[in-house]
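[[Encoded backbone]]
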Amino acid sequence: MSTSKALAGFAPSRVRGGSPNSSGSNSYPIASGYASNIFTGDIVVNASGFINVLTTTTQKAMGVFIGCHYVADGTPTWKPYWPSGTSTTEAYANVVDSPSATFIVQADASVSAGDINSQNFQVTLGAGSTITGKSGFGIAAGTRTTGTGMVRAISVLEVGGNDINVAAERAFPQLEIRIVKHVDAYISADSSVN
């Protein structure tokens, strides 16, 4: 599993300190004509009241996109991704937005046992697939820091072939993470839209 790189975004795992994932999410508006794809597993942000895909690691995350629904030409539509430039009404993103949510995601390079619960990471902003609707986001392993980062690895996914203590399996590990730079982690609002 972890011997090949296949970044597929952030998959909801559980609520930290709680039970397995219940897929709890909330709906937020997407601006008609928003000119970027948003894929299932992408980290999203608030931009002037609308959901946008994360474009820089300086932004504060709202959560992780898990699909959308909108009305196009009078037809209700549900999709695993937002198609760039869609002209529509009543467009909403479904977002796992709890600051306590955890996610499973692949790293783009090796991660060591010493990184777990001690290092923060930025994320890769990879392109997703309009065929599957899946994200191309992952963890940028080379950005590990004890300073500010978008996410923190809190455990290694316990599945065969994903043991970071085995050299042959640690190349692209699947990790459980929490979003550190979540918008709800900031007590006061700031003047920026992100």
Q: What stands out?
A: The radius of gyration is 17 Å. DSSP finds no helices and 14 strands in the chain.
